[in-house]
Write a structure and sequence with these properties.
The protein is built from 17 helices and 11 strands. The protein has helices spanning 4-16, 23-50, 64-67, 76-92, 104-120, 130-140, 148-164, 178-188, 205-217, 222-230, 239-251, 309-320, 333-337, 341-352, 419-424, 446-451, 471-508, and strands spanning 196-198, 232-236, 260-262, 279-284, 321-332, 353-360, 374-381, 392-397, 441-445, 519-523, 529-533. α4 crosses α6 (130-140) and α12 packs parallel to α14 (341-352).
């Protein structure tokens, strides 16, 4: 089926008719668990061709092919009762499959059972009409996820579904544009055996890019693919993004993505993270602007305690990197210029890590979800003998492409825009000696950073004062100027009234005189006083 896009639209139209589905978040949640079961069933078909003794962790009557695939199968109340009374109760409970041997097939079966439980633990069937459920299922069955073209097309649409999740109101959480995730992974360059971790996984954009990158550059054999499968790690706090991420990993060929955990990374005490938890590469866009629940900050050392989510993630990221491990983190301007705890955190970062590059992104990268200005921090953790690790920081101000003044949903940022940065980048092993300052790039020493009290919000010195042409900001500036003009008019009017009042008082004292110093007061036709010379 080539027109996957029209299938998705039809499914969404059907769901809108169901009285049980209220809003985008529920619609997406409903869509994802149904797609998960279809994708999982198609994946099992592939595995069955490769493994003669493959056994599904699902009871036979709950496999998609046995209850959903027949377009003339269950419908109406029979179908809704099956979903609510058999399918969900069974899948929400941990499937009774345990591996007591070292047999690889048995171990994998237990892992797959855990995966299904993790997906359905917080999933719900919001649809009330069994007839509409059948219509949705029949549409889903038109997509063959073992067909390369269908899978590729659905992958693109799936990204749009992930973007649509933004409208569901996830405060502080924003879909990271694919261009940004691609650029970050391209520059961090995770090798085949290196572990890649996203501690705030969201819907899995960074990990999906890391998988693609490793396959494109490093996977050359079946053994290489096996190493890739074990190297992708993530944790996501919220149920729906976790479900989306797990499905995303399966779409990207991760057979058993149980290493994508549904948990709060920050809930584990800082001191409990040890060397065995350290990883080679961290790529992430932690939620910024959000606040953690009471008590979470007490999991961290006193000098790093805060309720601001992004700061807590940064403290943990520094600890979780192995020596010579690499990280790239998306952070708002507020982290760069923030004081207090943020200053201490930046000192820790610069002491233990080589913060070699800050890419300053233009306004609107996350439009229409937020106008917050963001940056990408690239750093490498160094062994203690190499502390302090940062000697200087390179800044690169990413410009809008020619003819573009802002980004939006229909005209997002493109990966090709980063070609200039990639050409300029160089190699950390030789200290980026090929880098040169330019209109976009400049270098700042650690001494200057320290003198600024670790304020990293350093403007581009190669351009004059920059004018922001964002329409919303321009309108606000115009309104401020208009108000200032009106205030000035009011002040001048007040001064004039006072002057005229004082003048009236002076004339009253000389009312008996028709002439004073050669000047005579007159009244014009409209009754307004005027001053004229006496002839």
């Amino acid at each position: 089926m080539s027109n996957v896009s029209s299938i998705i639209k039809s499914i969404q139209d059907i769901m809108r008719k169901d009285v049980g589905v209220d809003g985008d978040a529920q619609r997406i949640s409903q869509l994802v668990w149904m797609f998960f079961l279809k994708i999982y069933d198609d994946r099992e078909e592939e595995i069955e061709l490769l493994e003669d003794d493959y056994q599904s962790p699902l009871p036979e009557h709950l496999r998609w092919r046995n209850w959903a695939a027949d377009p003339e199968g269950m419908t109406g109340d029979e179908l809704s009762d099956f979903v609510n009374l058999q399918l969900f109760p069974t899948l929400k409970e941990r499937l009774n499959i345990q591996s007591t041997s070292n047999d690889e097939h048995a171990v994998n079966k237990a892992k797959r059972a855990l995966l299904i439980h993790n997906i359905f633990e917080d999933a719900y069937n919001y649809m009330k009409s069994g007839t509409l459920i059948r219509q949705v299922i029949n549409k889903i069955c038109e997509i063959n996820f073992n067909n390369t073209q269908d899978r590729h097309t659905f992958g693109s649409i799936y990204e749009q579904i992930l973007k649509d999740l933004q409208s569901a109101g996830n405060a502080g959480e924003f879909y990271t544009p694919r261009a940004v995730t691609q650029f970050i992974v391209n520059r961090v360059d995770p090798k085949l055996t290196e572990t890649v971790f996203d501690p705030a996984t969201g819907t899995g954009g960074f990990l999906a890019c890391a998988i693609d990158h490793k396959r494109d550059y490093y996977v050359k054999s079946t053994k290489g693919e096996e190493k890739l499968q074990k190297s992708i790690l993530g944790i996501e706090k919220k149920a729906l993004p976790h479900m989306l991420c797990t499905t995303n990993m399966i779409l990207h060929g991760i057979d058993i993505p149980t290493q994508i955990r549904h948990d709060n990374t920050l809930a584990r005490p800082y001191k409990d993270w040890g060397k065995k938890d350290q990883v080679d590469v961290i790529v992430t866009n932690p939620p910024f602007g959000g606040m953690e629940e009471d008590g979470i900050e007490n999991n961290f050392p006193a000098n790093f305690r805060t309720r601001e989510t992004a700061d807590l993630f940064m403290a943990l990221i520094i600890k979780l990197l192995k020596n010579n491990g690499r990280a790239a983190v998306v952070l708002p301007d507020g982290f760069l210029f923030g004081e207090g705890m943020k200053t201490r955190l930046k000192q820790e970062l610069l002491e233990k890590c080589n913060l070699h590059t800050i890419v300053r992104l233009p306004n609107g990268v996350f439009n229409p979800y937020t106008g917050i200005k963001t940056n990408i921090l690239f750093f490498t953790k160094k062994p203690e003998k190499q502390w302090p690790a940062t000697e200087h920081i390179w800044y690169y101000e990413h410009p809008y492409p020619e003819g573009v003044t802002s980004y939006n949903k229909t005209k997002p940022m493109r990966f090709e825009e980063f070609e200039a940065e990639i050409d300029w980048w160089g190699d950390e092993e030789d200290g980026f000696k090929t880098r040169k300052e330019s209109e976009q790039a400049w270098k700042v020493s650690i001494e200057e950073i320290a003198a600024r009290n670790y304020n990293l919000d350093i403007k581009n010195p190669h351009v004059g004062e920059q004018v922001n042409h964002d329409p919303v900001e321009l309108l606000a500036e115009y309104n401020q100027q208009q108000q200032a003009i009106q205030n000035l008019r009011d002040q001048l009017k007040g001064i004039l009234v006072e002057a005229l009042t004082a003048t009236d008082g002076g004339y009253a004292g000389a009312a008996s005189s028709k002439h004073q110093n050669g000047v005579k007061r007159k009244t014009n036709a409209k009754g307004a006083r005027s001053v004229g010379a006496t002839r």
